[in-house]
Amino acid sequence: MNLFWYTQLTRLMLPLFFLRLWWRGRQQPGYRLHWPERLGYYPRRTESRPLIWLHAVSVGETRAALPLLRSLAEQYPDHAFLLTHTTPTGRETALAEISPEIQRVYLPYDLPGPVGRFLETFKPTLGFLLETELWPRLIHECHHRHIPLVLANARLSERSARRYAFFPNLTRTLLIQLSLIAVQSRADAQRFEALGAPSVELMGNLKFDAPLPCAHDAAFQQIRQMVGENRPIWIAASTREGEEELLLKHLGSLLTPPYLLVLVPRHPQRFDTVAALLEEHRIPYQRRSAQRPLSAGTTVLLGDSMGEMYTWYRLAQYALIGGTLLPLGGQNLLEALSVGCPVLLGPHTFNFAEASSAAVSCGAARQFFKLDELPRLAREFLENPVLCRSMGEQGRSFVERHRGATATLLGLVSKSVR
According to the model, what pLDDT value does residue 58 have? Predict the structure, then answer.
């Protein structure tokens, strides 16, 4: 496949893209807002300063972008900044922590017209794509217009590398057109180079540099008062579809007082679905959104709120990280480790392979490879708070040791991008 046929296929699929937005909007209304932006139509820009643009797909990438955005603002004080997103949750993330002067819009669909209108409206002088956002038309248009484009905090799993290898010419072309590829690990570098990237630099992981949310302490006190002081709390964080069913099946013996499971689905549109599942299993639960004190018989608190994950991690003795029970690659374990919450990982951690392996090696995390092992490990954590505190300290130290990816990236940009 080359760029021409990629573009034709994307055009054919455009009605399906909007149908998907409408469908997802049934449960998450944000998907039905700002549709013109998806086609590259934005309010006319009145700002005259040169603009630096960062693309962060959803919540995780947006949080990773915060330290980079702040450092860029210090290094380029005469520039304006733009954040683009793909999901409503990404767009809404960290609003309180970002200057209102920074505009936030949706990145358009990867077609010549929408991409051209986007670049004409904002005229970025420098762009950053975070993690693995390889959009062929967008990259081609930036290259054609001589806009330096950096793939930052890049990662590439073996599975993703195999998919890109099916289109070797298209993949090699778009990698060559990037101004800089800065990756999280040496394994990521090797995969990019195998696909034809001419030069790949190692920067580390921006997520180690992520700051704590501004409202962290206030939210902690509020939720601590709601749940009480004396209950052993554990969290299943950012669970994905199918994982809640597995947890209820394997951990039924732990869903009894005084233990309290805080169950936080990854996607807000699934809150009601998970609530229905708990009712089906006749498990006494309450919703965080109800904002009322926990009753003594409640064994599951459904975390149906946004922006409170750090608070849950501070409250919990340990965290079971979602996305690791099924072959989904896992969610970010570094947020938990940064506040001293040890983590338990399932077998599937390919999205955070290097960080997961290093956290296990230093004693900040444990990993199991068969679901039959989960009940024993879960109970061991809950019944051994001394172990949890020790692992938590290892986690804090682990995160501190690996900070610095932001500074490394900015150094690479200053050398590589003209």
Answer: 85
